[in-house]
Amino acid sequence: MKDDKIEIVIDYHFKDQSILKNALTHSSFINDKSKLKNNERLEFLGDAVLELVVSHYLYENCNNRAEGEMTKLRAKIVCTDSLAMAASDFQLGNYIYMGKGEENTGGRTRKSILANTFEAIIGAIFIDGGLEEARKFILCKLKNNIDDSVKGKLVFDYKTKLQEHIQQKADNDIDYVVISEEGPEHDKIFNIQLLLNGKVIGSGAGSSKKEAEQHAAYNGLIFLGEVHEK
Amino acid sequence: MKDDKIEIVIDYHFKDQSILKNALTHSSFINDKSKLKNNERLEFLGDAVLELVVSHYLYENCNNRAEGEMTKLRAKIVCTDSLAMAASDFQLGNYIYMGKGEENTGGRTRKSILANTFEAIIGAIFIDGGLEEARKFILCKLKNNIDDSVKGKLVFDYKTKLQEHIQQKADNDIDYVVISEEGPEHDKIFNIQLLLNGKVIGSGAGSSKKEAEQHAAYNGLIFLGEVHEK
After folding, report:
1. ipTM computed for the complex
2. Which residue numbers delimit the DRBM domain (chains A, B) (predicted)?
3. pLDDT tens-digit profile of B140-153?
4. Interface of B with A (CB under 8 A)
5. Taking CB atoms and an 8 Å limit, are B67 and A131 in contact across chains?
6. CA A117, CA A94: separation in Å to the nearest integer?
7. What is the sign, positive or negative, of the torsion defined by CA atoms of A53, B127, A63, B43?
8. CATH for B158-223?
9. Is there a contact between A194 and A220 (Cβ–Cβ < 8 Å)?
10. How far is CA A152 from CA A24, A67, A73, A139, A163, in A?
């Protein structure tokens, strides 16, 4: 895992590498001896940058929408599910500095961590390169979600989305199978495989069966080409 | 009432005067025959610009504050009371295009209208002149509120603020007197005078006695030099 690889993925080169490192540092990575800062202040800033860029885009591109409608669209575009979905698309989870405990309990695929780190990176680009660079990054990574949202098609329920896709062909059969349950009762991790006509097309982990199934469905949609993995 | 006068007050000259007119147009001014648009879409955009500018200021100037603290500070700085107070300071109410009905029921001093129009002007400056011009305007008009908030001194309860100020001198006596009640029972407007030792030092109108008293106290604070009227 190297920070310069993520610069290729996000298509932005930081003048100040310490800001990038700050943006990628989850609170679980910090211990008392460490001089590192976690990414929460950058997340605070990035959240506001994101809100402005999306608001401006909607203002410019949805002339016929009233303020109330735009507020609803914006909320959907910047919600945790939307950001986590976009962050998954470029495997942001792989680049986050996090504690072993967090990692072992599925931290790299946890929606809240993905969404918050995505916002921290936005904040970091804003500080390092200004609003225009942040706008480019946001519109590149969230354009599909924005367009889907404007068309009323942004769906975060991957199981439903997969079901709808599968139903287009008759006699398709999907099945979610629990492969393993790890950890103590109060902190279990479920691993689930998704089978389409008996063939594994995705798998997912999560702290509940429901969450693991959603992740498996999401990976299944990537496999089927319905979600684009950039 | 001319739009060019407000340009002096806000210290920004619009390249596109129609955006300024749009920002100053309350929904009550619009009728079916009018081709004008109300300012709600600009308010939507301005709200996001304001949030970013304040977030960035806090990020840069409060190095020792955690994300949760900054979120609370920001919420206080951008709340309706704070924006209405700042908007009152430059008499924004006088420049708003509003319907007669709204005007006759105290619309020009209504906090929600003042705050929303303030945000609409921020949105208009952002569209017309970009983020830097919007930042200049926001920091000029909200700097006192931001600094007071950071110091934990931002107070919107003007009656309490006045009381605290008055108590510094012994044998001061303040009194709120209802001068008139206008309009039907369900839509009354109260006019109240504030007396300090029997002398009128402020007056205020509102849809409740409480609201009218707050406005009177606010004007009393201006009279006493405790709130600055720019």
Report:
1. 0.74
2. 157-226
3. 999 989 998 888 87
4. 40-41, 43-45, 47-49, 51-52, 54-56, 59, 66-67, 70-71, 123, 126-127, 131
5. no
6. 11
7. positive
8. 3.30.160.20
9. yes
10. 32, 16, 9, 18, 18
CB pairs under 8 A between A and B: 56
For residue A73, which of B227, A178, A64 has the smallest C-alpha distance? A64
Residue from B52, B71, B122 to probe the interface with A (highest A Cβ count within 10 Å): B52
Q: How far is CA A115 from CA A2, A54, A120, A163, A202, in A?
A: 20, 15, 9, 25, 22
Count other Cβ atoms within 10 Å, centred on residue A43.
21
In sequence order, what are the residues at sequence separation of 6 or more whose Cβ sits closer than 8 angstroms to the Cβ of residue B62? B69, B70, B73, B150
In this structure, the strands spanning A199-206 and A174-182 are: unpaired
Known catalytic membership, residue B132: no
Q: Distance (Å, rounded) from C-alpha B209 to C-alpha B176?
A: 9
Give the domain ranges of chain A: 3-150, 158-223
pLDDT in tens, B1-27: 556 799 999 999 999 999 999 999 999
Q: Determine phi and psi for A221, rounding to 5 degrees.
A: -65, -35
- In a mutational test of the B interface, the residue from A53, A59, A63, A128 whose CB has the highest number of chain B CBs within 10 Å is A59
* Superfamily per CATH, domain A3-150: Ribonuclease III domain (1.10.1520.10)
pLDDT band at A88 (very low <50, low <70, confident <90, very high): confident
Residues A218 and A204 sit within 8 Å (Cβ to Cβ): yes
